[in-house]
Structures are given as structure tokens and as C-alpha cells.
Design brief:
about 350 residues, alpha/beta, Enolase-like, domain 1, TIM Barrel, 2 domains, 7-stranded parallel β-sheet, 4-stranded antiparallel β-sheet, about 25% strand
Length: about 350
Amino acid sequence: MNIDRISIYLTSVPLKQPYELSFSTVSDLESIFVKIIAGDKVGWGESTPLPGYTSDSKFSVYSNAEILSREIIGKNLEDAKRIIGFKDGFSRSAPMLAIEMLSGEITWTGQTKKVPLVSLIKSKSRDTIRDEVATAFKNGNHTLKYKIGGNVADDLERASHILYALPDGAKVRFDANQGYSFTDAVKFVDGLCNSKKVELIEQPLKVQEWSGTRRLSQHTDIPIMLDESILTEKDIIKAVEAECFSYIKLKLFKCGSYKKTERLISLALENELKVIIGNGVSTALGCFLESKLWDKTSELKLAGEMNGYLKVDMPVINDITEDRGMAIYKDQNIADLINESVLAKYTVSKKELYL
């Protein structure tokens, strides 16, 4: 089965509310979609690069998707996979996902699935934070998340409001997105006083600061989760050998392929690391696939972070919804679910390649 046609879409999708990170504020999801047709079969992939999280940009991912597409048009699926390669990165994931769908490496059960979702708390003042926490818990979210990584005093004040309002049985994750120095990270964890309501602190230091992150993990009983530091099998082994990390975070686009993400999940679990799956900046296509990947970690019962589709009014797939803090989807072929008219509405540039 050879590839007959490839469509590449660069889209810009406004968020319902700005998404504030330590390194930037995101107002739009700028996603690249790839549709590949081989015979009577169709495969789809998505990549949403986030400035500050990856060196890839929307332009480099879009350009690279076109370059790879020109190399694989007319090729069979195995040759196409070899050409794209299994390296990490946002620039390969969209065409690779489409190929994996076409080749049957992503399978479908037809079952309706439910995945517990983390709820992002966005407020900054005491009363609005406490109201938002209460609303999230009432909605069925038992794991909340808050972005930190700015001024430590401000972060600690807001954290105290969250912890005060957090009901028994609920947990909060604090995500610094590499925003702290070692000194500030120590101030933050010390200020939390090892609260049992804190599930973890995510990527407090820069990607390359393994030594400092290791020392921080040894300094506090609050678990540290590595996110941006984990790209490859070697990174997982490095985390295991450090003997002080409990959690890693995996995102589909960062890993570069569905099957590679599965392998990284298996490697981490085999080495007794807890794995959290999900991307808060992805449309429904990526969130759908990450919800499927969550099944591999379901015994951990950890809330997934594939909630990007809730941040936009772009139902490129109508078949993933949310109810009572759960992502709900029917595990069926995405090629049958894509709403191309919705995709076209948000497309700012498109390339078509034919045999």
C-alpha cells in the first residue's frame, strides 16, 4: 500500500481564555495537522508546538511536515516510517501518527472509555481561587493543577489559598514549567511544609539542571515530576538511576510517535516510575490519542492532563467530551471522526501533495 496524497494544515485556534505559563502566555493553539491517504485508507496526525517548551515552532513543524511529505509521497508505509524516523520531537509526530494509523499500529476497541482529568486552576486572588477550587471539586475533578514559576512569594500565597480550599481526598499539582532557580524552588517546597495535599511539583528547574533537580528531590518529601527533561529511553533510565524521582510526564507530540510513547510508558512502569499522560495544549485529535495511551497507566489511577480540547471551541473531533471530571470517548478510528469543515475554518495555510 503506497501513499497517494498528503494534506498539511497549519491552523490557529483561539483559546477560550489565555493560558499562562512561566515563560509565556498562550492565546491561540497553533497546530499542524497531516492527513495521509493510501489506497482507500486515511490516517491523521497532529502536532502543537509550544514556544518555550520546545525549540520547534509552528513554522518549523509546518515546513518539516512538507519536507517529509515530499520524501514519502508514493512510498509504501514501512519505507515512509523509516524516512520519517523515530527521533523525538514535534516536527515528526504529525506525519508519523498518520502513518501509524494507516499501518494498523494504532488499534481500536470500539468501547466507550473514561479518563479522569486534572482541572487547571487559573485564578490569582484568594476568593476567586477558593471559588474555582470548590467548583472544580463539585464538577468531579479530584486532582487540580496550578501554574507556578514566577515570584515565589506570590506563588506561595496562592498555593496557600488552594490548599486551604482543597477538600479532603483531593490533590493539587504545582507546575513550574522550568521557571525556578534552585534557591526559589527550595523556598517554594519549604513554604508548602510538605503538605499531604500536594501530589507533586512538576519540572521546577531547567531541562539540563539534573543535579539541582536531584538535590531538590532529596530536600523535600513532596514528589518531583520530570516533564521537559524526559525525551528518550536514556532520560528515563537516568531518572531511575537517580533514585529520587517518583513521576515522569509523557506527551505524545514530544515523544514523536504513538508506538514510541507506548514503549516509554512500559519502560517507566517496569522501573517503578509513575507516569502521567497528557498535553494541556492540544486539540481533540491529540487528546483523543493520549486518552487511549492513558489506558496503559490506568492501574495508577492518576488524572490525565489531555485537557487541551476543553480550552478551545474547535470540535475537530466531536466524539471526545467531558462529564463529571472525565474525558469520555468511543475508541474508534479517528479517520471516521475528523470534522474537516471545522478544521478548514481555522486553517491559515495548507499544502496538498499528490502522486
